[in-house]
Amino acid sequence: MDLEYDVVVVGAGPGGSVAAKYAAAAGCSTLLIEKRQEIGTPVRCGEGIAKRWLDDVGIEPSNKWIACEVDGARIISPNGTVLTVDETRAGNECGYVIHRDVFDMTLAQQAAKAGAEVMVKTSATSLIKEEGEVRGIRARSMGKEMNIRSRVVIGADGFESQVGRWAGINTNLKPKDVDSCYQYTLVGVDIDKRYTDFFIGDIAPGGYIWMFPKENDIANVGIGVQTSKIRGPGEAKMYLDRFIAAHPEFSKGKSIMEVAGGVSIAPPLDSTTVPGLMLVGDAARMIDPVTGGGIYNACVAGRVAGEVASQAVEEKDASQKVMDRYEKGWRDKMEEHLYRNYLMKEKISRMDDATFDKLVYAMTQVDMERMTTLDILRAIQKKYPDLVKEFEEFM
């Protein structure tokens, strides 16, 4: 069975759906495939996003997928010092806790409305390569094998991406560049739904524990632990269970969902393209290494990929020269930030609880109009210069 499209997108997460939408909207015959039978499930996400980027990719906020709009975030140091960051300091960096499954489905619907075809229960099995270019994929759908030929392939197949490896792109990760994550959705907890909470220190080595409110007494409570700092399977869950047991506001809750998985905290790939192919989102290691967040980066890169794909189709040219437009496009938007945060992650992962306590306390004592990483460091440097010697290279 052979099919033919201008553009094939592998993976219907946020980055893939946005890429398919923009390719289809530009007039390309576009196919979006998803290996699962239902887009957006199972949910493997803390489900928090900022507001600032939604307009950039044409996403209208909707009560369908917004579970809770938060006023800000609280960072809690090991000794219990609380830094509150609200909209007066963070602006539209504050945002929403979402229903990720509904959010993903909404983006796939947008792609379909723009003209993309969507096939679920369809897995890519290899790439079609001819004359040094990727010219499509081989896939399996409902037990049937098929060749799907295309001018451009966009790989948006997530953390465990196979598309990149098949293309010969080095996607290997070191243990220190992966977080092992575990999350409960707890019902009956005692929370303040106005804020997301982030607990830092040795309670989550190399990472942090989060609380994202979904309703008045429902929250996602999860942990990310640097894989290089754990000794065996299940240790991330052990850290989280220990934390919850020590916090009555959480231990009184009942779990209705548990999610486990890995998150990249690596620098972005040196190359995210070969002739005829682009990688988007988690597949390209576009996760923020400090926060572990990646939805924004995936969607923004997805838009660039969809637009470049349409140019390649129009020009009948998917050579490396054209694919380099994608490399430049997404790197101009986020590469510097990702690399800076990767270096920051390397520093933070070596800090002890006493230093975290000092830093959070220092942040509560300085007056800042904005709360970007750079503004925080500069403000602390003025009042407590010894605390930020480790971070002077970032300033």
Explain what you see.
The protein is of the alpha/beta class. The protein has ten helices and 20 strands. β11 (133-141) and β12 form a beta hairpin. α1 (14-25) runs parallel beside α3 (100-113) and α7 packs antiparallel against α8 (320-348). The radius of gyration is 21 Å and the shape is globular. The mean pLDDT is 92.
How many domain units? Answer: 3
Can you summarize the main beta sheet? 7 strands, mixed
N- and C-termini, Cα separation = 57 Å
Secondary-structure element string: EEHEEEEEHEHEEEEEHEEEEHHEEEHHHH
Order of strands, main sheet, comes to 7-6-15-16-17-14-18
At CATH level 3, the topology of the largest domain is: FAD/NAD(P)-binding domain
Q: Write down the overall mean pLDDT.
A: 92
How many beta strands in the DSSP annotation? 20
Number of helices: 10
Q: Per the principal axes of the C-alpha atoms, what is the gross shape?
A: globular
Low-confidence stretches at least 5 residues in length (pLDDT < 50)?
A: none
Radius of gyration: 21 Å
Which second-level CATH architecture of the largest domain applies?
A: 3-Layer(bba) Sandwich
Quote the beta fraction. Answer: 25-35%
- Kindly provide the name of the CATH class of the largest domain: Alpha Beta
Portion of residues within helices: 25-40%
CATH homologous superfamily identity of the largest domain: FAD/NAD(P)-binding domain
Structural class: alpha/beta
